[in-house]
Design brief:
Length: 69
């Protein structure tokens, strides 16, 4: 359940029309804050597979934003 909340928070920040309107620095800073806070809150150490999948999804979304700009 808590994994889906991370996806939802990042999905809200990575909406294309929002990200294209603002600079990449703001978008990437906000995503870094969300992910870092989530990892520190849940003390994730044994979730390597989830973090790998999430990282792939996140890199895909960021690539789409950069290409659309």
């Amino acid at each position: 359940m808590f994994k889906l909340s991370l996806y939802d928070k990042c999905r809200k920040e990575l909406i294309r029309r929002k990200c294209i309107a603002r600079s990449n620095v703001i978008t990437f800073t906000r995503i870094n804050q969300i992910v870092r806070g989530w990892i520190n809150y849940f003390k994730i150490r044994k979730m390597k597979i989830f973090i790998d999948k999430f990282g792939q999804w996140l890199r895909h979304k960021i690539r789409v934003i950069i290409i659309k700009q």
